[in-house]
Amino acid sequence: xxxxxxxxxxxxxxxxxxxxxxxxxxxxxxxxxxxxxxxxxxxxxxxxxxxxxxxxxxxxxxxxxxxxxxxxxxxxxxxxxxxxxxxxxxxxxxxxxxxxxxxxxxxxxxxxxxxxxxxxxxxxxxxxxxxxxxxxxxxxxxxxxxxxxxxxxxxxxxxxxxxxxxxxxxxxxxxxxxxxxxxxxxxxxxxxxxxxxxxxxxxxxxxxxxxxxxxxxxxxxxxxxxxxxxxxxxxxxxxxxxxxxxxxxxxxxxxxxxxxxxxxxxxxxxxxxxxxxxxxxxxxxxxxxxxxxxxxxxxxxxxxxxxxxxxxxxxxxxxxxxxxxxxxxxxxxxxxxxxxxxxxxxxxxxxxxxxxxxxxxxxxxxxxxxxxxxxxxxxxxxxxxxxxxxxxxxxxxxxx
Length: 400
Ligand code: KDG
Ligand code: MG
Description:
By secondary structure, this protein is of the alpha/beta class. It is built from 13 helices and 15 strands. The chain has two domains: 3-104, Enolase-like, domain 1 (2-Layer Sandwich), CATH 3.30.390; 108-365, Alpha-Beta Barrel (TIM Barrel). The protein has helices at residues 40-55, 63-71, 80-100, 105-109, 128-140, 181-199, 215-224, 244-251, 269-273, 289-302, 317-329, 343-348, 374-377; strands spanning 3-11, 17-24, 29-33, 117-125, 145-150, 176-178, 204-208, 232-234, 256-258, 279-280, 306-307, 336-337, 354-356, 359-361, 389-391. The strands form three sheets. Strands 4, 5, 7, 8, 9, 10, 11, 12, 13 and 14 form a ten-stranded mixed β-sheet that branches. Strands 1-2-3 form a three-stranded antiparallel β-sheet. The site of magnesium ion (MG) has 4 residues, from loops.
């Protein structure tokens, strides 16, 4: 089965997505996600200008060799753009292989380890009370796990908490926001304490610090929220600083998650081998596709670390489909993040996966179960959009 064509589409049904479609001489096609939030055009060019020409004519079933060709065969290996491009090819090829085998993708990976995947979504309010109301609303929709964030008093804008009517992250240039660690560290224990009191013991609560703390501050936060029994604390320190987690671990038993920005196994090797985290957040689109995340998951499993894939709304529905098939198979599954996609994106990317009573179901159709409507996508052209950046009150640029 030869690859006859591969095309890249950049569209913006509610937000930007980069999609790769690979066609074969057997009439079977596969699709993959290559979205890198705020850098969409770079990854589209990387694919179109450099990888696609080398893809045409290859055997579509040789997934491993194609992966190695684009990874080992490149002098400039790793990095978010290159790995997202490889991921899109890899996921599209797994889609093709599973369709050709007439099997849902999880069957090719080794079959189901579970019937459904525990999932969490986001509650983010302007105040502690508003956040708590949003947590309750998610439990009423069936969620058994909720990520809890709120605006920080004294900070005009808090990432992920946008005022009603303002589309999140739809900024032509990165918006500059103020970051104040002291206020954040004082506020979060109050927020989590209040929500825990309101919801009782059973609901899983999570929180994301978006890499903003130093190791010592991170250790203090992890220790101070221990009484609230979190499912996890996520991204406490800049993720490239793997050694920082040794210090955090010495001070706290709060479970730790990190890795949504990792793009290879080397980014998390120390964390996994030393058991410094509890959940690894790598997801197919940003870490080299199914082929590579499977390797990360296996190394994680050796060290009692479970998979908790990144599933923000900038992971296209294709990545959700691929991640859910991986989750369905992986023995060391923890939880799957799910932030609802805009309605236009749900139409452009028809998908078999679905949410039911707080669990995600992968679907049973051959392939990863996500399709792409090119004609409809063409009605939503790319719109320049960036994530915020943060500065301290003296103007110093701060970490993402
Ligand atoms: O593109 C960045 C988002 O995916 C990220 O900010 C969301 O931190 C995030 C999360 O945990 O979903
Ligand atoms: Mg995160």
